[in-house]
């Protein structure tokens, strides 16, 4: 049975690039409708971030929770 491996390189020792941005572009291409719905749903957080009402970590937290919920539905975890 084939297994997939997910690797995150936060300090750029393995991958010389911005993994979060590259993954987001990949996800947008693979799941365009889900990505657009996410952006519409959570665009209010982007506006709040622009006005310094919420910080970037809050937006990232929402994004990762969205990805996690997608994974749980897909693999029925």
From TrEMBL:
TM helices/strands, residue ranges: 31-51
Keyword Membrane: yes
Keywords: Membrane, Transmembrane, Transmembrane helix
Name of the molecule in the record: Haloacid dehalogenase-like hydrolase
């Amino acid at each position: 049975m084939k297994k997939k491996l997910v690797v995150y390189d936060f300090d750029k020792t393995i991958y010389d690039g911005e993994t979060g941005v590259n993954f987001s572009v990949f996800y947008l291409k693979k799941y365009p409708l889900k990505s657009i719905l996410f952006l519409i749903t959570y665009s209010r957080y982007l506006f709040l971030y622009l006005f310094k009402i919420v910080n970037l970590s809050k937006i990232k937290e929402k994004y990762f929770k969205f990805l996690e919920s997608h994974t749980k539905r897909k693999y029925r975890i």
